[in-house]
Design a protein that fits this description.
two-stranded antiparallel ribbon; 10 helices; about 15% strand; globular; NAD(P)-binding protein; Epimerase_deHydtase; dTDP_dehydrorham_reduct
Amino acid sequence: MPSERALNFLIFGKYSLQYIHHEISLTFPGNGWISGQMQEILRSTGHQHTVSYVRIENREAVLSEITRVEPTHVINTAGARGNPNMDWCETHKQETIRSNIIGAANLADCCFLKGLHLTHFGSGCIYDYDKSHPWGGPGYTEEDEPNFTKSFYSYTKVTSEKILRHYPNVLILRVRNPIAADLHPKNMIVKLSQYEKIVNVPNSGSILPSLLPGALLLAENNETGVYNFANPGTFTHNEIMELLKKHVWPSLSWSNFSEEQRKILQAPRSNLKMDVTKLEKKLHQYGYDLPSSHEAMEEAFKKVKQLQEARG
């Protein structure tokens, strides 16, 4: 069961952004995407939370924030993911290292020294389908050795996870193809809607409205270790676009790549299925059951539609 006492969370990961898409202008002031969603969840509880502006690679600043806030728990949603996509990391390797490796390790170490639980939002983009894990076959578990480092982003995520695994105070949640009930530019549905051509390969995905309450449950109960943080089942990009067309943008159109996608990318992309048995079992212990990826997506798209209608 969740902790009955009020906890104090310190969240790292914050920025502001203006976004224009499909003739809609939206502003997302002062919050990282996942950070903002976690704050909404925390506001619905009796827990306190503070959001930090400091860079996680700045050791003195991180320690100063911990001393100032005196948190019981820390959440890290910071990290270099690239803008507009992970190809950015190929040409900004030092910045990516600073955030994804040095910063993540620094924050974990500071929390360890202070006796604090850290929830770290990592990445599932560290695997790719292979002979042992083909389409329709078994998914990758938390104990499978990562086999995808062909993009620099994935390389840094593999490296940071290998380091963070050695800290007994750290909960690592592997996010993959994140989707939420909003039109934020980091939302996978918004990214896909900008492309004329997409791949159509089954993948695991993290439907955040259904998963983030589970992240809080794990943190409240001081769970540690690595979890594939995705919904059961897989979906294709075409299935996402069909739902987006059904609920949000009826005029949406697209076509599929064959082999030519690689020619326009600076780095290859991973495609994979994650085994979420460990996550399902643990959350079930706390009375929380995950919906399938398709069920969760349907609900998320309905909420996006309601958001559109409210905006007129």
